[in-house]
Amino acid sequence: MINKLLTAALLIVVFFSTAAIAQPDTLWTTILGGPGEEYFLNMFATPDGGMALLADWTVTQDSSYRGILKLDAGGDSIWTTVIDRPAEVMTRHRDAIVLAGNQYYAGYNWIVLTWIRPSGEICRTDTICQSNDFYQFTRLIDLDTLGFAILGKRGINGTDVPFIFRLSLDVDSLWLRDIESDYPIYGVSAVGLSDGGVAVASYFGTGGQSDVRLTRFDADGGLQWDRTYGGEGRCQPLEIWETNAGALKVFSHWTLDSAYVFLNIGSDGALNEVSPSFAGFSAYSGPKLISRLSDGDYILYGNRTRTDPRPWFGRGDGNGDMEWIIYYNSGDFRDIPAIAESRGGGYFLAGASANHYRGRFPNDDIWVQKIARVENLVEGKPYPASHIILTAYPNPFNSSTIIEYQLERPGFAALQIYDHSGHLVKLWIDSFACPSGRFLWDASGLPSGVYQVRISGGGFNAVESLLLVR
To answer: What gap in Å lies between CA 227 and CA 224, rounded to an integer?
Structure first.
């Protein structure tokens, strides 16, 4: 079932300065699914301006297949290819789609790479026998003429250990390296380097304490350096990129302050700078995915709060300042496990309608959406200087009044009303908040007197006195 929804009623768009940023249009939303539960696995943009989706698709209530669905720039289906061999992760190698999967057979572990032409035909399959028991692949990295790297994890002495596995372009096994630790360690991301090497971002720790760990290998698999970064609290990387001359940039959650930062790492592993980024998010409302755009900016996805999993999607500039955010309000769209920049301009989102389990997303359907690219209309910073605006009308009032606020940007905020003795009589917000809001306060059950409405967030606060007259 493919159902094209040409409506933007599924979301709310929030901007940081309507004078500086145009409204991002929802170009289309496509619902994909069959009679049973679909399982989303992967998505990326294709050179023709469209996209490719890897998923388990249902044919009947009791049968399904793993396959790739190719969509054009308008969201229409072009072809579907059934994958009858192991396929867990995929990447794009020039114009071809490459899949990697792991199969244990006859006492040996087999790595299978499947190549698919832009027209959808399977044109090549490569199989490599390994004695190591791979548990799961998490990322397939295209290194252009240097081949591929596979990031995954495997069981060693009862512990899941991240590994990086290098393959030549002819799919010959070059080297395999584990990233071991005395503590539980979790592989998060990896990037292929311009010199043929690979850098892996992971984190390790116990009891709510964790540090960022970066491990860099040269083209021959030799360990160049292995460094940890962090301090008090939970430090966990989300993504890693190569910047220039072998330097690295890591986006990470950082310390108990619930901050998100860019770590700028030199080619020798030295921590050169920690740059705060995308302020106002907590560990629960902050980004879960981030992707760097061709112009150096970023697109991000996260959830509203710990108890409210409804997703948001936004764009931030290269300095780590948010430009706009889209808040999804429909209960059908519960997650955004993949985001990508469209080759033809704009952004692709792929989502699911239920909670995820081990990287898969069981749901009735899979949804895909395209958001138009938003251009800056004026020069300068896309939002004004830090401030909070708080107003109430009418004031004085008899039984009810309208309270409005405006923040600099979305973030954690508290909006409260106190009586003349300092006792809290009303709490509206104490969580992640939109940058503006409007509330009707019904004070019909309270005595006459002076009340104070207070709002705080982002290091700023405002107070307005309210006079209730009977």
So the answer is: 10
pLDDT digits (tens, 9 = 90+) for 217-231: 999 999 999 999 986
Alpha-carbon dihedral sign for residues 61, 62, 63, 68: positive
Q: Using CA of residue 412, residue 417, residue 422, residue 423, what is the dihedral sign?
A: negative
Q: Which residues pair with 213 in a beta bridge?
A: 202, 228
pLDDT-derived band at 404 (thresholds 50, 70, 90) equals confident
- In total, how many domains does the chain have? 2
Nearest to 250 by CA among 223, 234, 271, 226: 271
pLDDT score for 181: 75
Residue 429 pLDDT exceeds 80? no
Residue 3: CB partners within 8 Å, gap ≥ 6?
30, 31
Q: Using the Cα atoms of residue 57, residue 62, residue 63 and residue 66 in order, give the sign of their dihedral.
A: positive
Whether 345 and 410 share a structural domain: no
Write out the E strands in 266-346: 271-277, 287-292, 298-303, 311-316, 322-328, 335-341
Domain CATH number, residue 452: 2.60.40.1930
pTM: 0.72
Torsion, Cα 7 9 15 17, to 10 degrees, reads 70
CA nearest to 75, candidates 368, 372, 371, 373: 368
Q: CB within 8 A of 454, min separation 6: which ones?
A: 414, 415, 416, 417, 418, 461, 462, 463
Strand, helix or coil for residue 424: strand
Contact partners, residue 428, CB within 8 Å, separation at least 6: 415, 416, 439
Average pLDDT (316-344) is 78
Helix (H, G, I), strand (E, B) or coil at 224: strand
Identify whether 372 is part of a domain.
yes
- Listing DSSP states for 113-140 in one string gives EEEE-TTS-EEEEEEEEESS-EEEEEEE
Residue 129 domain-assigned?
Answer: no
Contact (Cβ atoms closer than 8 angstroms) between residue 351 and residue 335: yes
372 by Cβ neighbours in 10 Å (0-12 / 13-18 / 19+) ranks as middle
